[in-house]
Structure formats: structure tokens, C-alpha cells
Amino acid sequence: MMKLVLSFVAVALAATAIAENKPEMMSWDDAYTQASEVLKTLSLDEKIEMTRGHNRFFLPGAPAKGLPHVYTVDASAGVRINNRLSDLSEVRHPQKTTQFPATISLASTFNTELAKAYGEAVGYETRMAGAGVLLGPGLNIYRSSQCGRNFEYMGEDPCLAGQMVANYVIGMQGTGTMACLKHFVCNNTEFLRRLSNSIVDERAMMEIYTPAFKAGIDAGAGSVMTAYNLVNGEWASQSKYVITDLLRGTLGFKGLVMTDWRSVFDWKKIVLSGQNVEMPGDPNQPHYINSIPELLAAGEITEQNIDDMIRPMIATCIRYGLYERFKNGQPNEDALESRFPHHEQVSYQTAAEGSILLKNDGILPLKEGQQVLLAGRWAKTVPQGGGASCVRGFNLVTPEQALLSALRANVKAVEKPNFIQLQKADIVVVATGTYDSENIERPFAMEEEDEALVRMACAANKKVIVLVLSGSGVDMSAWHDKVSAIIYGWYPGQAGMQAIADIMVGKINPSGKLPATIEKSFKDSPAYGMIPAGLSISHTTKNANELWIAPRHYDVEYKESVLVGYRWYETKGIEPLFPFGFGLSYTTFELSKAKAAKQISGDKPLKVSVTLKNTGAMAGAEVVQLYVSENNPTVLRPNKELKAFKKVHLEAGKSAVVELELKYSDLAFWDVETHAWKVNPGAYTLHIGNSSANISQTLTIEAQ
Fold first, then answer.
1. Using 50, 70 and 90 to split pLDDT, how confident is the model at 83?
2. Which domains does the chain have, with CATH numbers?
3. Is 223:211 a contact under the CB 8 Å cutoff?
């Protein structure tokens, strides 16, 4: 364990050094000034061409005027090798890229330094692929456990998602790769995603759904991708409110905004919304209700409007050095391939820290000499999600291979065992879960065959370990109290199953924490009842031409407002199966002696300290979590909200004083009367623990 921790620290420090030592970029003012000068050299036809993507995955340029096309690549579990271009000759395809754990696994680490290392590794591999922009990270809030894209995001809490994405962006952009934050905004379902209209109130928008984007913007992210869905009645990718008012105005974003692929249909709205480029620019995509030449001829838009549309894209590519890098075609980055072993270590470490031990009756760590039967849909397959985040990887390790390596013998893998086989084993490990992907919503319950196998294993054997490999929460209510152990491994990447096997045999002490609440029943979720009457969850595809010719939608009302995730369950008094921030260890920890000044004001942050002691017999890591509640709120507020956290490694028997920082702004709520953040003076309670449901220290402070 110590060797792995030291290795990780070196990785994290390397990422930090790169971020701190990168050359200073020019100011935004200078970049926009240069972009305006470039616009003077372009013809109207060239400007129109630059409003739409090139070759499906390129930001459009004007090569004759010295503006090369800039290649972008898909993301969320590493870099996807792209064979879906109109012209494959324009891309030098890498031979391999690392399959990293899904970013929800990264969020489960609660380790901001590891987020930097992960971002750095993916940033370098983006360059290896000949690209300048990674189409990620994704950071939409986990609102519904049925959303097929939750595995690409960073959980239900804006503080956690914000801190993780900020460090990810710093690590990535320190390599020269531009990050693209997606999908702005309120893309919280994949059910007929082009038809969903997210109806969200102002407070929820500002307190829940935009803070992670703001954190990524403040960390320097150069681009943002808008979402498929409508927001309060207009498609996000052509909404002036979403792009100009909210993203550029309220959040202060100055960079490049691009659409998601085929997410718009009205060119007048696109041009006037603040959008900068429509992707993918495929001439064979569905019909639009108008065109730029038609609108210009009718006087509904002007050439100045076209200039205003593409200027931010040009300015961003200038500021981030992308035109300079691509001026002679795709750069050759072969020298970076020596980093692959390092990236494999980052992938392994993320899975090691992101896998969550939810239950253990003492069966783990496994002991030598036990006969283990490995069963389930993922027993012989490396699990991963689908869609844009599907990364092939290399040196893939299956659950069967990992357990055989960790135990060195005594493992038999049978995907669909019978009752007798289950009964005869000393221990049964069921590697089960779901296949999640963009453009689908999947039930909270696992498929009947997977559920039946777990139940049969419990009936046949008293020593059952369930390994859940999924992108989101699943229904475990029928059997969680009957099994001996549960590990939530998410989609752990190419080396992740080895990390999980090493956890199972005690080579690694688990330290992952849930970044999202897992409910007992989906009926408990605020997202329950979202799917319109007359449709079922299987209706996940729609004739695209129907959408563009006759746009229509269904409403998704965010009636819970700011009560998302644990905020909902705690405030409504609904007990979940497993709470946010929860995760077990092979050792035990104790928090004591919480201290803080009695008052806080806007002058400086409040330092909160607490003593953490490893009271067990094994080295391990704990995540200290600081939540805040207002004692006498003037508006509806959650019972408490996460505002700071820190992951700390301790040897057995050792103690450390952990310091957390609370800003005055952490006490604020969004005031819909003044359309601004507001802190009420008065008493607030600080809650310190190791999950949202396990608070062991409290303090009261006074806001001035």
C-alpha cells in the first residue's frame, strides 16, 4: 500500500509542476483583438464555412488564410480512436490509447491531486492522437440513477464535481490540450435526449447545475459544449439565455462554445445565440428550417452577426496556440508514447482509490486456499460504458485474469453457473452490473437474468461477494443484506480489475466513497415519474428527421429544485440504501477535537481543523467531509451541503490534524429577488464526518 501511495504522490506532483510551469498565455483582450484582425482577411464565404464543423470532428478553419482545421477527440474514459470521419486521410490514427476508469470512478476517489494526474495523462494522449481539443470532461449532475451517461460525470454534488473538474482541467491543459466542459446545461437524462425540456428554477440552476461548470471555467477551460436538451423551452445549443446570458454573462466564460453533434435546427437562433460553431457540420445531417445565405438575403442576420459568432472560436484557438500547432497539418507526437506505462499506473491508481467497499462482514480480504467461483455477466469481460466514451485500451485485464493473478490459483470462472456449482464453492464472487451508454436510459433494476443470478447465489451459498460494475446506482435492496460483501467498481478501466482484485486480497486498502446516493427504490428518487405517460424506458431512439422537421418535446420538471441527491433524501427524511460519501475500509478511523473560530466574514476564509486517527491495524486513507447548514434559513435550504473535503492517508495507529477551508461564499444561497448570491447573517452549523450520514463532530459559527 505504501509503495502505491508514494508512486501516486509523484504522479500528482508531476501534474502540478507542469500546470504551474506552462508558458503564460496571452490575455483574452489581446486574443480577441487578433481575432478581429483575422476576420478582416476572410471572405463572407470563408466566414460562413467557419460556422460549421469540418470533417465531422474538426473545428473549422480557413487554411488558405492561415487558419488550419483543429482536430477534436471524444472522451470520458480516455481518448477514443476515431474511425468515423468523412475523410480518414486527414487524421493520423494512434495505435492505442489507455482505457481509464470512468470519470464517476475518478470522482469516487475524492482525490483532487489524482484528478490532476488523470487529466494530465488524458491530455498527453489527446496530443498522441493528433488532436488539440478533448471533448470532455463531462460534468452534468447525477440527478437520476437511470441516466445512461452518469458514468461520464462526477456525481451528484456540485462541490465534489467542481473541485475534481478544476484539478482535471489544470492537469489536462498543462499539457497543451484544451478541455471542453460538457454538456451545458441540465443534460440530466438520456431518454429521447433531443426532446427533453429541462424545466429548472433559477436557484437550482445557480446552486446545483452550474457551479461545476464555473469551477472548470475558473480553472481555465477553453471550450464548452452545449447540450442536446431544451432548457426552459429552448434548445440549449441555440438558446441566447443559456449561452449569452448564463454561460457568458453570469458565469463569465470567454472561450469557444460548440454544439453537441446534431443538436440544433434554426440557423437564425444559432447565429444570434452566442453559439460559435455548429458540429459536426455534416452536409448529410437533418434539414434545417433555414440557412445562413437565406437569412442574409432576407436581412434577418448580417455579416457582422457572422463575425460575432465565429470571433470567439478564432480568439480561443489563437490564445491556446492551436492554430500554431496545426499550421503544418497534424503534429507528430510519437515521442509521447513513452508515457504509456505511467498512464497505466494512473489508470490503476484511479480504480484502486475509486472502487468502493459498501459492505464487508469480514469475508474480505480473501484468504489463501479458498476455492472461489467467479460468476456473472462481467466475469470474463472488461466492463465499460458505450457511446463517445468507449475506449478500446490495451493490456486489458478481465475479472477472471485479475483474480487468478491475485490469488494465484483456486479461481474458476463460469458466467452462468448452476445451483450445484454455486453451492460447492468456498466463496462465490458475482461480477454483475449493467451496460450504460449515452442515448439510453436504463432501469434502476438490473436485468432479470443478472438479478436472478445474485439471488440464486445467495440461496446456494452463505459466502457471496457481489462486485457491481456499472455506470450508476442499481437496485440492491432484495439482496444487499444477504451477501457477505459488496464492492462498487463502476467501469474501472483496463487495469482496474487488477486493482479491485488487489483490494479483494488485501494488497490495497479500499478508500473510495460514493459520489452519489444509492436509493432503496427508484420511487424514492425525485426523478421518479419523469418518463411521459404512454412511453416506456425502452423508447430511446427517434427518427431524427421527424425532430428537425417538426420540433417538439416533453417536459422534465425539476420539482425538487435545489434538493438533489443527498439533499433530497435527508431533507425529506427518506433513508437511502447507501448514502453519499459512504465507503468502508479494512481499518477504522476516528474524528475528534474539531476547532474553528466562532465567526466568519467576507474578509478571509475560516480555517476548520479536526484530528483524524487511524484506530485500526492497517494503513489506509479516509475522506474527511465538511458540510454546512444554516440554522434559521429564510428560504428552503437542504439539511446540509458539502463545502470541503480532504483525503488523508495514515499509517496504523497514527493521527493527523486535518485542516479544511470554509469561504464566506460557501454559506450563500442564490437570491431570486436580487439575482445574486446572498449570505444571511446568523448561526450556521458545521458538520464533520466521513459520509453525509455519519457526522461525528459539529461546530456552530456566526456569519457576520
1. confident
2. 35-333 (3.20.20.300), 589-703 (2.60.40.10)
3. no
Taking the C-alpha atoms of residue 430 and residue 415, their distance in angstroms, rounded to an integer, is 9
pLDDT band of residue 92 (cuts 50, 70, 90) is: confident
Model confidence, pTM: 0.95
Give the closest residue to 152 by CA, choosing from 113, 180, 116: 180
Bond from prior residue into 280 cis (ω within 30 degrees of 0): yes
pLDDT tens sequence across 565-588: 999 999 999 999 999 999 999 999
What per-residue confidence (pLDDT) applies to 409? 76
Task: Output the CA–CA distances (angstroms, integers) from residue 176 to 57, 345, 625, 679, in the order listed.
Answer: 19, 21, 33, 39
Classify the C-alpha dihedral 168-169-171-172 as positive or negative.
positive
Query: pLDDT per residue over 612-647, tens digit each?
Result: 999 999 999 999 999 999 999 999 999 999 999 999
Q: What is the CA radius of gyration of the chain?
A: 25
If DSSP states are collapsed to H, E and C, what string results for 218-260? HCCCCEEEECCCEECCEEHHHCHHHHHHHHHHHCCCCCEEECC
Write the single-letter amino acid at 496: G
Distances (CA, A) of 203 to 108, 515, 558, 559, 561: 26, 22, 11, 12, 7
Q: Would you tell me how many other CB atoms lie within 10 Å of the CB of residue 93? A: 11
Residues in the chain: 704
Rounded Cα distance between 74 and 57, Å, is 9
Q: Is the pLDDT of residue 9 over 50?
A: no
Partners of 372 in the beta sheet? 411, 427
In this prediction, residue 539 has a pLDDT band, given cuts at 50, 70 and 90, of low
CA distance 193 to 542: 10
Decide: helix, strand or coil at residue 351: helix
Instruction: Give the pLDDT confidence of 207-228 residue by residue, as tens digits.
Output: 999 999 999 999 999 999 999 9
Nearest of 527, 243, 495, 565 to residue 350 by alpha carbon: 495
In whole angstroms, what separates CA 464 from the centre of its chain? 31
